[in-house]
Write a structure and sequence with these properties.
Distance between the termini of chain A: 35 Å
Radius of gyration of chain A: 29 Å
Shape of chain A: globular
Strand order of the largest sheet of chain A: 4-3-2-1-8-7-5-6
Strand order of the largest sheet of chain B: 6-5-4-3-10-9-7-8
Family (chain A): Belongs to the protein-tyrosine phosphatase family. Non-receptor class myotubularin subfamily.
Helix content of chain B: 25-40%
Structural class of chain A: alpha+beta
Number of strands of chain A: 14
Strand content of chain B: 5-15%
Oligomer: heterodimer
Number of strands of chain B: 18
Keywords (chain A): Cytoplasm, Sarcoplasmic reticulum
Subcellular location (chain A): Cytoplasm, Myofibril, Sarcomere; Sarcoplasmic reticulum
Strand content of chain A: 5-15%
Main location (chain A): cytoplasm
Largest interface: A-B, 105 and 110 residues
GO cellular component, one term (chain A): sarcomere
Structural class of chain B: alpha+beta
Chain lengths: 744, 790
């Protein structure tokens, strides 16, 4: 019962005692079987099913479980319990698309089969072998499911196991993704009005508006509307004014505008291939590009090759794989064991360090924009991975607009979706064998944002729950947002698909249409009750710095680890120097640790100003400041639920308080609209959250954990539990003695 | 307060610094800027820096002129006492130097960094306009006068602070806070017995003159049926005479006791045995001895861990080296500090579960009974007793389990640098454990992190009687206070007036006199903006025990004893020395074997407690006595950032963001509510016909809230918010803005004082007036209706 070894493997002899044989269960359940069908989404098709399947409750040492039916559809793997749910409480935070026992096919990370006490990862080859007795599914949102297949009929079990393995793990074409079936159904769920507020950046107007908002002085390129320039470039994009010739090199090295600082300098990103010396023409082309960037503002530019200074996407993938293992808990024993070396094992995965490096890099970029007012050009081979991370982070730090919910969604849309991040490849949607291109880059970005959110929570309109939900939604194969590799890819696929749907232009829901997943009540959890609205007179606090009128040329310094062997940056610097006749800035020439020192200086000068939540925001990067995203990683582990405690308890109370404020405002509005107007600056929460009160005490993993499956574990750790078991036997030994005593 | 007029003359104002009586300014530097932490708002504050022979004081430029009539305050908000300074570092144009009393600087410091023993780091920046000599001189002066690690210097420091006649007089007239239990007289203990509903116990003054045990307090609680004469015989059987003493009763009817280890080489007379048994069992039939000797960290371990933690958090000051960020977590792990925290919490959680069973005595045993017993005993009560999570309750707890119980504060803190071997921050470990509980259940505490932090910092200030003695006996001696002249009427300390010449030591105030150290603004942050805890009435004889059948066999015979050690229950034969071996004739004659029924019962009990699902069971859902069981897994135990990391070497850590329930959003929301209320009030004044319509939804909501929040502290009724002034902690705001608003709407009225009690943001139901900071306008009165309707 209390096997301390690697618990998952030693489970062939479950101590669960079934008082009925499987046959009995079968006959018993047969009549009701017809009713047990999952509520299919429009377009969802059931592939296969098996009954009875035992689903282990994850958190219990005793291998207990629930009997039910396991289905596999073209959207998800779902388990329906035989037990009638006891007067189900309406959950406050319920996903409309999938429930607690559903796993969208895309969300499946790994499947393991337990063969004679040995856990083996399932690959295509193993599927043909005999059935495992137990199937363990690890999800990408870190849930773990364990199903026992031995109780159902041999062929049923085989069918369901192979079906699941096939649909989850085999390579498949994009057309098979559920989004296309879902979309194709005649009545996709009622009217999906696109949220007006989220700017989609799929029209020239959106870009023009964004340029106007940031006062950018750049040029909108619409020549790529039909992807004639390059298939890797967005449909519309913005480039420095000085670039004349667009059509060379398929847009390679083309600096794409991201954001403009109020001083006039701007952030650009580009895909730069590492260039060899011989390739003179291309070299020249790049020089022109860099010069064009420099022309944007004050003839200054700072280039930054991210592939040199940050871990590459494989490193990120490896590190994340290591990291997530600590949270994929098959049974509590494993978790107790991992506890001993908790901090050092977290550290050894290196994931937190990668987060720190990304934030650090973003701070450096911010420093150039904010303090030196130089243009910044970040480059990378593809220009769509780490470039997106760094540019988005820098924008969040600099621009309070992106810290609102709508602003953040627009930012993701701008940098990631329109910016052609290869979501399809990076998330391994199609289970391609080619492991090279999988990498949780977007998750890394969300992690970094979470660090900012938890460090400066009043500055963000959205909550960590929002980020967690967003990180889950990446794996729900319904949304067009995360389904494609580039704008061209999207256009192509959508065009090819559109004849199927007769109703004009095809629109598959974007993830920003949260009503597809959550009702308005649940969406309230996306808002941070602590968000500090902008007050009008705030402006005076931080006056924009006077733009310095000295010309800068910041060279990529050794901190940015541009080795000389490349020769590339050196030449660029020289040519620039010749052309612009500017001086090097002395501090960039300094000793290797000089940049760190200046960054620190920058930090300190930022800290010396009073913290303004609507101004520049920098993350803290030292050891204790970068933390584990508890809500995302620990939400399914009952051992760490704090019942009635945690930050959630405070948070919900605050939300209540905020609701009250809104009530009052509404009341005031009725009575005296003139006064109300000046106060009304808080996002309006659609519905009151009365359900808080009825649900009694919340655990710290609210709103994700399901109270029903929660099993309050001993706060007294394992030693005591063990001893209880020991005393059990002790008590048995002393039975004789007690029989004597009981007469006394 | 009697003779304040005599003091007024002595609140001297020197260059804007309000000096203590007798305090002289040694050096002063103008145009200095002080770095503010994030909690203080970040950025810099300019003003004047002073060094007196008691403290380093900083007076902000635009600070209000000190009120001459105010009580003398030892330390202002920006001050630091010389005794809590650990290191002085001067930062020059290109280098930093650790300044010692003897060294000389070869450069003019631009920045002065003071590293404090309590892990604060204060940073002062000299302006270019600060005269060089001033900058140099004040650095030297501080370096020379701060307390180097030399025995004896502490006394001059104390005298500097408290030695003046005015100060002595002032202190002698301070009242003990009547809201908390001081446990210094038998009344205190009787109150505690009454509060917890314990019966069968009495307060014994057998140790009144410290004749039985020098380390025990003068009063202890023992079973009623044991007479003093019988009791006297038991002292010899315990190490240092620390007999089993009652500490607390769980509402389910169990009693918590603590004792030192048994003296083994002593003959047990038959009478002795009877007395020992009754002392141990109280009125119960089952006794579980919890051994805190072996698996808990030793004081040396704690000291080592704390030193390491300190180095990790502050870095190596002299060489400016800190742990690289990517190795921070593993280094933290290797300090083992968190392991020790966990260890204590775990033990306390076990005991808390055990006590929940009812009808037994749980006796904490430690060889000395002066370290871990204090920690665990205190933690158990914080977990189980909501009263101990309020400020007065917690102070009472520390008085009871630490100060009067004889924790060796003086040796453990090692103020005099005379007991290096014994130095160990056991009390700080306890505070860290309480903080862990607070961090996991912030809404169930009335006290706040700020309070714990204040207590943490005060430990490093050698000015308080609470920490300046190893036992109650020393404390009594010091105050020249003979036990027989003690009048336990109202806990007043009566210092002989007009005869203060002979004591060498100045009269030390207790640490609980917070007004001496903290401004009212900061004191208001000691409590959550909550209602007074609704303390459930005491339950006599454990009537609350709705638990499973715990009819422990009650046959008038001596009961069973079990040992809980390493998480295991057992019954070793030599557990009670008098029951074992050859002296066990008494035992044999009664033919009692340990009842395994009880054993399995115990085990069932812990299992029930730990496995039950409280939320499934509506009766226990809001049981205020439901223990706060901390989660102790790796990700749940955290570093107390606000304490250990506030002065980290890394500049960034200066402004670590406040924790999740940081104050200003809360204040802001509360403000908003307040503003809106007033506006609604104004508006409804104009349109009174709308009045009733608008009341309806609110009433509904407030009722709901009230039902749901019975057992929790924070926001116990959100409807009350409406009528309350937002915050007492935001006193700075409330002193300014409401006035403005009031003058706008109706004539200013005197602020209503509520007889010395704290005001809370969300006051409690029964006394709607008590929390009010302002008198509502006639129109606002109408809004009280929902509040009064239930």
């Amino acid at each position: 019962m209390l096997s301390l070894g690697s618990g998952g493997a030693k489970s062939t002899k479950p101590s669960f005692v079934s008082y009925v044989t499987p046959e009995e269960i079968k006959s018993e359940k047969d009549p009701s079987k017809q009713e047990k069908h999952p509520d299919l989404l429009p377009g969802e098709v059931e592939f296969c099913s098996a009954n009875p399947i035992l689903k282990y409750t994850q958190d219990d040492l005793s291998q207990r479980g629930v009997f039910g039916t396991l289905f596999c559809t073209n959207f998800r793997v779902t388990f329906i319990s035989d037990e009638r749910p006891l007067e189900k409480k309406a959950k406050t935070f319920k996903n409309k698309l999938y429930g607690e026992n559903d796993i969208p096919l895309m969300c499946v990370d790994h499947i393991y089969g337990v063969y004679e006490e040995k856990r083996k990862p399932i690959t295509g080859a193993l599927v043909k072998n005999k059935n495992p007795s137990k199937m363990i599914i690890h999800c990408k949102d870190l849930r773990v499911f364990q199903f026992c297949l031995t109780y159902s009929k041999e062929e049923d079990a085989r069918k369901i196991f192979q079906g699941i393995a096939h649909h989850c793990l085999e390579e498949k074409s994009l057309k098979c993704v559920f989004a296309f079936s879902y979309m194709g159904t005649p009545s996709p769920s009622p009217e999906m009005p696109r949220k007006q507020e989220t700017i989609m950046f799929d029209s020239p107007e959106d870009w023009t508006r964004e340029m106007k908002r940031t006062k950018a002085n750049c040029r909108l390129v619409i020549e790529n509307e039909n992807f004639e320039l390059s298939q890797r470039l967005p449909k519309y994009f913005v480039i420095p004014l000085a670039i004349g010739d667009l059509f060379s090199y398929q847009g390679k090295g083309l600096p794409i505008w991201c954001w403009s600082h109020y001083s006039g300098c701007a952030l650009f990103k580009a895909s730069f291939l590492p260039v060899t010396q011989e390739d003179g023409d291309f070299q020249k082309h790049l020089d022109t590009m860099i010069n064009a960037v420099a022309h944007n503002h004050l003839y200054s530019v700072k280039t930054e090759d991210l592939s040199e200074s940050l871990p590459n996407i494989q490193d990120i993938q490896q590190s994340y794989n290591k990291f997530k293992q600590f949270f994929l808990i098959e049974n509590s024993t494993d978790f107790w064991l991992s506890d001993v070396k908790w901090f050092s094992s977290i550290e050894s995965s290196g994931w937190l360090d990668i987060i720190r490096q990304c934030l650090q890099k973003a701070v450096e970029v911010v420093e150039c924009l904010e303090k030196d007012n130089t243009n910044v050009l970040i480059t990378e081979e593809e220009g769509t991975d780490l470039c997106c991370v760094i540019s988005s982070l820098a924008q969040i730090m600099l621009d309070p607009y992106y810290r609102t919910l709508m602003g953040f969604q627009s930012l993701v849309q701008k940098e990631w979706v329109a910016g052609c991040h290869a979501f399809l490849d990076r998330c391994n949607r199609l289970h391609l064998k080619d492991k090279e291109c999988h990498s949780p880059v977007f998750l890394l970005f969300l992690e970094c944002v979470w660090q900012l959110v938890q460090q400066h929570s009043p500055a963000f309109q959205f909550s960590e729950t929002y980020l967690t939900v967003l990180s889950d939604s990446v794996h729900v194969p319904i949304f067009s947002t995360f389904l494609f590799n580039s704008a061209h890819h999207r256009e192509n696929i959508m065009k090819a698909e559109s004849p199927l749907a007769q109703s004009g232009p095809l629109s598959c829901p974007t993830v920003w249409d949260w009503s597809v997943q959550f009702d308005s009540k649940a969406q309230n959890f996306f808002f941070n009750p602590l968000y500090l609205e902008k007050v009008k007179h705030d402006r005076a606090v931080r006056k924009p710095h006077k733009p310095k009128h000295q010309r800068h040329l910041s060279l990529p310094s050794s901190a940015f680890k541009t080795p000389l062997k490349k020769g590339f940056f050196k030449d660029e610097a020289d040519s620039l120097k010749k052309m612009l006749r500017v001086k090097r800035l002395s501090r960039w020439r300094g000793s290797p640790d000089a940049p760190a020192a200046t960054t620190r200086e920058f930090y300190e000068s930022w800290q010396n100003r009073p913290l303004d939540y609507h101004g520049l925001l920098l993350p803290y990067l030292d050891g204790p400041a970068v933390r584990v995203w508890m809500q995302r990683y620990l939400r399914w582990i009952p051992e760490v639920y704090i019942l009635g405690g945690g930050s959630m308890a405070v948070m919900t109370k605050l939300m209540e308080l905020q609701n009250q404020v809104q009530d009052l405002k509404r009341a005031l509005e009725q009575r005296d609209p003139s006064q109300a107007a000046e106060l009304d600056h808080r996002p309006y929460l659609q519905q009151r959250l009365l359900s808080f009160d009825s649900s009694g005490r919340l655990s710290s993993s609210f709103p994700f954990a399901y109270t029903r499956s929660r099993n309050f574990k001993p706060s007294i750790p394992i030693a005591l539990m063990q001893s209880l078991m020991l005393t059990d036997s002790l008590a048995c030994q002393e039975d004789e003695a007690s029989s004597v005593v009981s007469f006394v | 307060m009697m003779s304040h007029s005599s003091l007024h003359a002595h609140g001297r104002d020197v260059f804007g610094l309000c000096c203590l009586p007798g305090e002289c300014v040694l050096q002063r530097a103008v145009l200095v800027r002080k770095k503010l932490s994030a909690k203080e708002g970040g950025g810099w504050l300019s003003g004047t820096l002073f060094c007196t022979h008691f403290r380093v004081a900083f007076v902000p430029q635009d600070s209000q002129k000190p009120d001459d009539n105010a009580d003398p305050v030892l330390l202002g908000d920006h001050d630091v006492a010389l005794a809590s300074i650990d290191k002085v570092v001067a930062v020059g144009p290109s280098r930093t130097k650790l300044v010692t009393p003897t060294c000389s600087l070869k450069f003019t410091p631009e920045e002065l960094v003071l590293y404090c023993r309590d892990l604060r780091v204060l940073c002062f920046l000299f302006d270019r306009l600060t005269p060089d000599t001033q900058a140099l001189e004040i650095t030297y002066t501080i370096a020379k006068t701060y307390q180097p690690l030399k025995p004896g210097t502490i006394l001059s420091f104390q005298n500097a602070a408290l030695g003046s006649i005015e100060m002595k007089q002032f202190l002698s007239n301070r009242w003990h806070d009547p809201n908390m239990n001081w446990f210094e007289c038998s009344m205190g203990w009787e109150q505690e017995l009454e509060r917890t509903g314990a019966s069968g116990w009495r307060v014994s003054s057998v140790n009144d003159r410290f004749e039985m045990s020098t380390s025990l307090p003068r009063f202890s609680v023992v079973p009623q049926r044991v007479l003093d004469t019988e009791l006297k015989k038991t002292f010899a059987h315990f190490n240092e005479g620390r007999i089993p003493r009652w500490c607390w009763r769980h509402p389910h009817g169990s009693d918590l006791l603590r004792m030192a280890s048994f003296q083994n080489n002593i003959y047990h007379e038959k009478d002795d045995i009877r007395n020992l048994e009754s002392v141990l069992f109280g009125g119960q039939q089952l006794c579980v001895i919890v051994d805190l000797g072996e698996e808990m960290p030793s004081p040396a371990d704690i000291q080592l861990a704390h030193t390491r933690l300190r180095t990790l958090c502050l870095g190596d000051i002299s060489s400016s080296v800190s742990v690289p960020d990517d190795k921070w977590l593993s280094t933290l792990e290797s300090t083992r500090w968190l392991d020790y925290t966990r260890c204590c919490l775990r033990k306390a959680a076990e005991v808390a579960c055990l006590l929940g069973g009812g009808h037994m005595t749980v006796v904490l045993q430690e060889p000395e009974d002066r370290d871990m017993n204090c920690v665990v005993c205190g933690l158990v009560q914080v977990m189980c007793d909501p009263h101990c999570r309020t400020v007065p309750g917690f102070q009472g707890l520390v008085q009871k389990e630490w100060i009067t119980a004889g924790h060796k504060f003086l040796s453990r803190i090692n103020y005099h640098r005379e007991s290096d071997k014994e130095e160990a921050p056991v009390f700080l470990l306890f505070l860290d454990c309480v903080w862990q509980l607070w961090a996991q259940y912030p809404t169930r505490f009335q006290l706040t992190e700020d309070y714990l932090l204040a207590l943490h910092d005060s430990v490093h200030l050698p000015l308080f009687s609470s920490f300046l003695a190893n036992s109650q006996r020393e404390r009594c001696r010091r105050s020249q206070h003979l036990p027989q002249s003690y009048t336990p009427v109202n806990g007043l300390r009566e210092l002989p007036k007009g005869a203060p010449e002979e004591p060498v030591d100045p009269p030390f105030p207790p640490v609980w006199d917070w007004a001496l150290q903290y401004s009212s603004l900061r004191r208001s942050r000691f409590t959550q903006p909550v209602s007074q805890p609704a303390c459930p009435p005491p339950v006599l004889n454990g009537n609350l025990n709705t638990n499973q059948d715990h009819g422990w066999p009650n046959d008038g015979l001596p009961g069973s004893v079990f040992l809980l050690s390493r998480g295991t229950f057992s019954h070793p034969s030599n557990l009670l020395p008098w029951r074992s071996g050859n002296s066990g004739s008494y035992w044999k004659s009664h033919r009692r074997a340990p009842s395994s029924e009880s054993l399995s019962g115990l085990e069932r009990l812990i299992r029930a407690c730990s496995l039950s699902e409280p939320s499934e069971n509506p009766s226990t859902l809001h049981d205020p006595y439901e223990p706060l069981l901390p989660l102790l897994l790796g990700p749940c135990v955290r570093v107390w950032r606000a304490c250990y990391l506030r002065g980290a070497l890394h500049a960034q850590a200066f402004s670590h963001p406040a924790s999740s329930c940081s104050q200003h959003p809360l204040d802001q929301l509360a403000w908003e509510v307040q503003q809106l209320r007033e506006k609604v009030a104004q508006a409804s004044h104009r349109h009174p016909e709308n009045q009733t319509k608008r009341q309806e939804p609110l009433r509904l909501e407030s009722n709901l809230n009230q039902n749901a929040n019975n057992g929790t502290f924070l926001f116990s009724s959100s409807s009350r918010t409406s009528q309350q002034q937002p915050s007492s902690r935001g006193a700075a705001h409330s002193s300014v803005i409401p006035k403005a608003q009031r003058t706008a709407s109706d004539p200013p009225r005197p602020v209503q004082r509520n007889n010395g009690k704290h005001t809370f943001l969300f006051g409690h139901q029964q006394e709607p007036q008590s929390g009010l900071r302002y008198i509502p306008s006639p129109s606002a009165k109408l809004h009280k209706r929902p509040g009064n309707s239930y």
